[in-house]
Amino acid sequence: MTESIAKVRKAVIPAAGFGTRMFPASKVVKKELFPIIDKDGRAKPIIQIIVEEAISGGIEEVGIVVQKSDIPVFTDYFQALPSYYQKLSAEKQEYCQYLQNLGSKITLLTQSEQAGYGHAVFCAKEWVGDEPFLLLLGDHIYASDVEKTCASQILQVYEQANQSLIGVRIIPGTEIHHYGCISGNLVADGLIDIDTIYEKPDLNYAREKLHVSGMKEDEFLGVFGMYVLTTKIFDYLEENIKQNAREKGEFQLTSCLDKLQRLEGMTGYLMKGRCFDTGMPDVYRQTMIDFRND
Ligand code: G1P
């Protein structure tokens, strides 16, 4: 009897950082709540677009990791009706119901100390339980080049690969120092058997260690912003947290991904789509322009 692969039902989105790269606006608005004009013409907070992406892939429950003091603003957005509800058009009132319905799928998880991306992911351990889960960055949004959304693509590939998976995209050498990067062997169309995962390499390191054969010079595979991970990742994160093993002052995810990859193997998947970063002023401005016109 073949072992059946657990369906991925849960998604985790870390949204508990200070957003210092978006200072000073992030003093008053969580960067995950900054607006983007979506394809339907609505001005939506970034987090909503990410939640919708997860749901589009068949995810049933979404855990958003936030700071405790931010619980009210996220709860208000996804659960409360606005004070001016009665003044809204029927269509917008209906949209409020839609948001509440989305909210019913969301659990807010808290990170008590802003100790890094890996630490934020670890805060979802109890809620995730014993199931593989989809991890989505809190500051990336996506546009698929094919009919299936990006989340659907990665979840479908997970069912075939049956091991942890990182969605990747081609990143030019000039930008690689901003992103996590993988290298390995191309084993099939768009699938990479990962042998290294490295956080924000400089170009010289990337040239020396992270070139994937068959790819152009000075092009690398960087994190797309979507991962499907087995719960073993929490053991590695916990180990680092217990040992206070910080990198650049924080608990990072990437080094734990690398350990997970060595233990269980990991596949990279070249996503058929584009991701749009919103986490830095210049890229956010560009995303505002490009996302809707896509
Ligand atoms: C995180 C990840 C990194 C990824 C990046 C995308 O870094 O650690 O691997 O490429 O997000 O924005 P951060 O942006 O939190 O520094």
The succession of helices and strands, N to C, reads: EEEHEHHEHHEEHEEEHEHHEEH
Specify the biggest β-sheet: 5 strands, mixed, barrel
What is the averaged pLDDT score? 95
Computed structural class:
alpha/beta
CATH topology assignment: Spore Coat Polysaccharide Biosynthesis Protein SpsA, Chain A
Indicate how many domains the architecture comprises.
1
Query: Taking Cα atoms only, what radius of gyration do you get, to the nearest Å?
Result: 19 Å
- List cofactors, ions and other ligands: 1-O-phosphono-alpha-D-glucopyranose
Number of strand segments: 13
Q: Which CATH architecture?
A: Alpha-Beta Complex
* Biggest β-sheet: strands ordered side by side in the sheet: 8-11-9-10-12
Q: Tell me the CATH superfamily.
A: Spore Coat Polysaccharide Biosynthesis Protein SpsA, Chain A
